[in-house]
Fold each of these.
Amino acid sequence: MLGLDLFKQPDCRDYLAERIGHWRYFATGDRIPETVEHGRGHVQRLLEFTRQLLAAWGHTPDTPKLTDHQLLVLLSALWLHDIGHSGDRIVFDDIITSADGKTTYSVGEDLDQVRACHSLLSYQIIGEERDFLFADPPTGVDKEKFVESVRLAALFHRRKMNPTEQTSMVPNIVIAHGYTDGEVFNKTLFDSKAFSLVVALLRFIDGSDNQAERAGDPKFYEVLENALKRQIKALEIRAEEPGNKATSDIFNEQIRFKEAQQGHYEKHRLLKHVFFVRGVDDNLAPAYGKEQKSKTFVLEGYAVGNTAYGGYSDEDAARKILHEWVQEYLLVEDYLPFRFRVILIGKKGRQVLNTQLTKDEQKVDEKPPAWWTD
């Protein structure tokens, strides 16, 4: 479950076993309770995906696999990549830069900014708390480069991060380099190819957790939705009260954020669960990914539809799963060793969805679709 048996050597395994006992308490919840879960349950599901993916990869003979050091960084980043949900400020450096000359950026209590910047905040916290988060690593592993490997992987785990160029974030914040740039990977334990593989796996695995368990029990959602409506009403009243005109913009931002959460769970409720297997027959159906020698196998992502959910239909599930999962893959396909196809198990039985994706839908959006709020 924890992925410790995946290591070839005991030193990395023993180190991670000790650290998980420490890190698990950093993944107990979120600062933003209105959104889907980013805590320990999310991490456990990502670890399951990692095992499934590496098992599929392991059945491909004569193919280079992850080294113990790559696996150590990947599993560490899986535990810590969302720690930024508890962050509050960013200190600019040579990677995260300010377009207006400031030295710091405070997100304060703006929960929308916390979510938008949480990968940057994870990078910040991992760097500032390195001595608290990390014990001395296994023999032969440089601690500074190990910590930088984990924090940079966490920084680049979101889909909007460009692998080869600078990325503009919230106003006046720029990620100065892509993760394939020497300014980034030279800080890590790896060369460009090895580090890009770790980041690509983290992004793809993290983007695969789209299932009902992440949204919680349907009854909980009903209670949350009702609470959000009451909170929105209270904020609307406060925004109009005499003496609050100067801060009405803040109230209105909070209203906008909370209104967006009312439909936030829908895409997750469409699926009971998802899992990975190795494609048994690579000629079974078209799969995404470039036809090249580096793509050594086909990974199948199974999405089991939550047909008991009243908003579910095969068409709804297909459109959202297609756009969601396939685009996560397409963004990092150049750095992964497999091609990918999605299979929906729903009212119509087994459907291979990749053949239904139009050319326009295959394009990677710079701006996520309206229903994307994660």
Amino acid sequence: MLILQDFIFRTHLDYCVYYHTEVAKANGASEAEIQEAVALGANVRHWSMILQGNQIDLEDFKEQFQEMMAYMAEQASKN
């Protein structure tokens, strides 16, 4: 529910924001969890604008991301 709420916050669907916030609360989401979902949505929107606004090529991004993941896995295996 909180992942869906994150999407709703990023797309500014007011009725859905209200609905999913209330449903999340009814399902036991704390105020902190709801605030975290909002912050996550803001962060995703932020980076989406940076990547798309600068017209970063998706295939280049994927390649660089895989290189980063391989490096992190290599570093983790040393510990």
Amino acid sequence: MSETPLNTEEQKWREILKSEPESIEALANLGKVLYEKNKFDDALVYFEKAHTLAPNDTWILFHAALTYGELKQPEKAILYYEKLLVIDSENTNVLYNMALMYSRVSDWANAEKTYRKLLKILPTDLSAWLNLGYSLEMQKKTDEAIKMYQEVIARDPTYGKAYYNIGQLYESQEKKDDAVAIYRKAVENNPFSTFFLQRIYNLTGSKRYVPAILNATQLRHFEFGDFSATVIGNIQASGRIGYKYVLLLYKKEDMIEPIYYVAFESSPATEANNNQQLFFCAFDDHGHVNFGLLDADLSPDDFAKKAIGKVIGKYNLSLDIIPGELKE
């Protein structure tokens, strides 16, 4: 066994158990080490032994329940969470995990009941509101589900998953205009979530192809002529294509819907070379254009210069209106 912190911990507790086979501390901690090493079957053996010796120890009960969850035995996990709730009926971590286990066995009524109990104690838990909505959705309680998703949006107007879930429900009901409206609201509240523009274009029959971005951070912003450009990074994307940077080009009179995108992107093809190079691409009304590979360590400023170069070429812009720091 190689010397790593977890292996050292494992050896320590095993040594203690040789002389103290009923040490609750050693049994529980060895179980935790094995859990952290993803040896869930082995971890459970020690958690169960510890539980037999200390049946009301909440730490042991909780970790045994987590382990049953990892072993895809949600019914067993629920039994342990029920024991925990007898001891502490308002433990929000227990309630949340228990609701997840009910969802795994498609017991949506009990999942709903558990999320509602949790939210009375912790109404700020947006994930619980979202999951409550989904539990209602799975029971065909569509109107109630939408209200729960709207509650998420009221508490955090940038929470994209809530907009998406509402939009999908509207789409399933063939309420196209309502779906477009909720997706547009998503973009208005998080202008970098171009994934929702993609949904709008699909519903309205537009042929525009845009990067499917869920969330991002603004790195740079520039104004020139009639245009505004923003470089984003820390990008969370939907799908197989990843993005290191994207430049979004707007007409100043419409800062919601970009007219042109330049992207520094990865794909399964670039991952084969360990992402040492990424594709330099653009998106417009005509589709996706690949300009070739560039070094992956390109800085945001260097990317901005290259991206603005593509903007200049596409829109026949005079260099006179381009800020000096953007000229290559």
